[in-house]
Amino acid sequence: MTALDLSSPVAVVGTGTMGQGIAQVALVAGHPVRLYDAAPGRARAAADAIVARLDRLVEKERLTGADRDAARDRLRPAESLGDLAECALVVEAVLERLDVKQELFRELEGIVGEDCLLATNTSSLSVTAIGGALANPGRFVGLHFFNPAPLLPLVEVVSGFATDVTSATRAYETARAWGKTPVACADTPGFIVNRIARPFYAEAFAVYEAQGADPATIDAVLRECGGFRMGAFELTDLIGQDVNESVTHSVWESFFQDVRFTPSLAQRRLVESGRLGRKTGHGWYDYADGAGGGRPEPHTAEPGRTPAHVVAEGDLGPASELLALIREAGIQVREEDEDHGTRLVLPSGGQLALADGQTSVEFRDVVYFDLALDYRRATRIALSASQDTSPQTLAEATGLFQALGKDVSVIGDVPGMIVARTVARIVDLAHDAVAKGVATEEDIDTAMRLGVNYPLGPFEWSRRLGRNWAYALLDDLHLRDPSGRYAPSLALYRHAYASDKRQGGSS
Ligand SMILES: NC(=O)c1ccc[n+]([C@@H]2O[C@H](COP(=O)([O-])OP(=O)(O)OC[C@H]3O[C@@H](n4cnc5c(N)ncnc54)[C@H](O)[C@@H]3O)[C@@H](O)[C@H]2O)c1
Fold it and tell me: How far is the CA of 20 from the centre of ligand 1 (A)?
């Protein structure tokens, strides 16, 4: 099954933000494009807006004048749905309401030819439920573009329960022919990206709700230590708290209120207070004085005490790279084999351990440090200590990371810290999604890198961290919060267990 022929007309119904973007993509690829919108005059205005965008591409020399003229000639607003009769593909981008979409497709089915592919750009409704309104749901598919559609390459091609393989394949190949990077996924709440990205927001909000740290500090740690492009607070201010919360809410509801997707009370309060983010001038941060002008500085510790030496007990796992960095900083490292320990012992006698789902208060004198995407390149590290941690140990832990050139943020005694718990949950949801047939590992990695700009796909990250790492951390978190929110999935358990068996150990 191949992509649609470029001579085949494509219709876009609903010509708001997404419809315009999708129409531009199909148009620039070479199709004749028809635009229809229920609001009078809107399709015409959308056509003008698209041509104005093409003009800007010509100014930037990313499109030739001749190509712009040809595209303009291929673009036509439609007066009624009846004008779409000749189209080979209709992409719907109307209001996000099941009844509105079902009604539209029922009407379209009586207008277009039998071979016409019907697609929805819904981001949160069930593709199966929309298609359920059709006499022939086999030709109905989800084509989930990301905003802005002309710029973002990812398209989730969603197969509903009744979608024919041939229709899904044709939609997939067509998206690819349009220069996009399609990924195939089953029709599940949130598809790939909006499902697997939930913990990125939820865990940041949870650390904040637990009084672990303020938004600016959590954001700085996610960026400068975790390698994420933006922190969860600044990103949701950009997306809109109402929009982000409604996606979370819809995924949670659609999973029958699965506790792993529980929305955040702190975000609810923000939405209730009308602090929706940049668009209202206030969100987690204050934008009254311009973009991000009122953003507070992250917590950054005063200079600590550089330890002269450390003892490394056991294998530091994902943080092993630290030993080389510590040596390069002129600090002596003595390595000792330890069956149980995976810690650095400081001159104070206190210990420094990678966040593992336990809390500092459970041990005599421990400081936890957070997971970094890359310890060499990280510019900030979070540390957590309890009231039982000695001031000397905290000062030496702080001084150690400062000697490696890092800013240090000391946060509350939060198990799993910030980056570690976030990455572990993303890895878990990704494994769970593959086990449930949502998508392949490769497509999930692609979707998370392109859809939400993660520095690594969950499976690439999982491989780097070691097969047991996420499972062990979540298992520990689950023990401390037995609500089920952190319960590792059976898929992650299997993954960890299989690796142990291969290595000749036991689980
Ligand atoms: N905005 C995003 O970031 C984004 C991203 C991915 C998917 N989506 C999905 O795309 C769809 C459209 O979102 P949007 O942000 O472009 O909305 P929008 O409000 O900008 O545009 C919707 C358009 O649909 C028109 N419309 C409403 N009912 C109609 C009908 N029955 N027939 C024809 N036209 C109708 C409206 O007049 C409006 O022009 C939604 O399903 C949304 O979930 C949005």
Answer: 10
Q: For 365-413, how does the pLDDT look when each residue is reduced to its tens digit (9 = 90+)?
A: 999 999 999 999 999 999 999 888 999 999 999 999 999 999 999 999 9
- Rounded CA-CA distance 365/269 in Å is 37
Q: Give per-residue pLDDT as tens, 106-138.
A: 999 999 999 999 999 999 999 999 999 999 999
298 by DSSP, 3-state: which? coil
Block residue for tokens 């421990």: 366
The 3-state DSSP class for residue 1 equals coil
For residues 138 and 381, give the distance between their C-alpha atoms in angstroms, rounded to a whole number: 51
Q: How many Å apart are CA 221 and CA 369, to the nearest integer?
A: 11
Q: Which of 121, 123, 360, 489 is catalytic?
A: 123
Query: Residue 205 in 3-state DSSP?
Result: helix
Say which residue the tokens 């718990």 belong to. 421
Q: Report how far residue 242's alpha carbon sits from residue 256's, in angstroms, rounded to the nearest whole number.
A: 21
Residue 53 CB-half CA count within 13 A: 19
DSSP 135: S
Q: What is the mean pLDDT of residues 228-252?
A: 97
| Start-to-end CA span in the chain (Å) | 45
Q: Catalytic residue, from 194, 264, 360, 489: name it.
A: 194
The dihedral formed by the CA atoms of 432, 487, 124 and 433, expressed in degrees to the nearest 10: 0
Which residues lie with the beta carbon below 6 Å from any ligand 1 atom?
A: 13-19, 37-39, 42, 93-96, 100, 104, 121-123, 145, 147
Q: Is 156 a catalytic residue?
A: yes
User: Catalytic pick from 109, 156, 224, 396?
Assistant: 156
Three-state DSSP class for 127? helix
123 belongs to the catalytic site: yes
List the structure tokens of 239. 């997306």
Q: Measured between alpha carbons, how far is residue 390 from residues 284, 301, 395 in Å?
A: 33, 16, 9
Residue with tokens 């592919």: 117
Q: Whose CA is nearest to atom 15 of ligand 1?
A: 17
